[in-house]
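Posting here for the record, re: 6-O-phosphono-beta-D-fructofuranose.
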Amino acid sequence: MTVTNIKRIGVMTSGGDAPGMNACIRAVVRTAAYYNIECYGILHGYQGMIDNKIFKLESNDVANIIQRGGTILKTSRSEQFMTAEGRKIAYDNLTKFGIDGLVLIGGDGTFRGAQVFYDEHKIPSVGIPGTIDKDLAGTDFTIGYDTAINTVIDAIDKIRDTADAHDRMFFVEVMGRDAGFIALSSGISVGAEAVLIPETHTYIDQLISKIENGYRRKKLCHIIVVAEGDDAGGAVKVAELVKEKFDHIETRVSVLGHMQRGGSPSCNDRLLASRLGYASVVALLEGKHNYMVGVINDKIAYTPLSQANKQEPTINDELLKLVEVLST
Ligand code: F6P
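Prediction output follows.
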């Protein structure tokens, strides 16, 4: 490994939390310790840089966190960091600690902040994709996604029990303000009748005929999975529109909400978090600065932070077809 002169790094989590962030922090701290680099934790993301909430992290400080959801470093979305004045204060604070490299665990907003920060103050960063939405270019998976979809299928399996007992139609809203990955993967896995996602236009008429077909062949309970960012509105709105046509059927809405962001990370998320945490420190040391580390085809991949944006619609058409065919 070609080693740069980086001696002290800071690590933080930013944006929406995701299960596996703690496993990732642990990997960053332990990798730094392995390579004799000092590591500092920054509380509450960019806001903590501004508020000087920076403290030394040793190997022992990250014991017993690999299995915990949330983030021991807390998180936030900082308005102040969006101003040049805020970023200057953040830079001055990092300088006091001699921090010369950053590991940032978050989403595209976090990475945009890192680029501006580098342009102004030249502190190099490596980003790690941490979001349950899985909506970043440059990686096949993001930390938290696998746990979130498993949380969703666990919840919907339970909803199906009661839907079946009452012969009811359920509209279940899952997270995904801009992306339908959670809705589509979980929808297929719970055998949903339909999955509505932001990437495709929702035709309520088509949904209604699909449900009518189901009743014609004596299907008595229906589960419709709706991503919160679907263009027809959330589950409450879609349920209202559909209910007008099925006034003899009982319908219910269940909004799963923030439970999707919590919980103990799955094995896949712990493994991904550990691999990316390690890779981020190595990347900083090797001089691969201002990249996001991700995993593509099971190999570590480096994408310039400028390109690690929210993905263009890349929903797999094959999966959309699966929903249609398997709910017949
Ligand atoms: O973490 C991403 C996400 O789950 C989105 O799908 C959702 O819209 C958003 O976070 C909500 O986050 P918050 O309630 O923290 O603003």
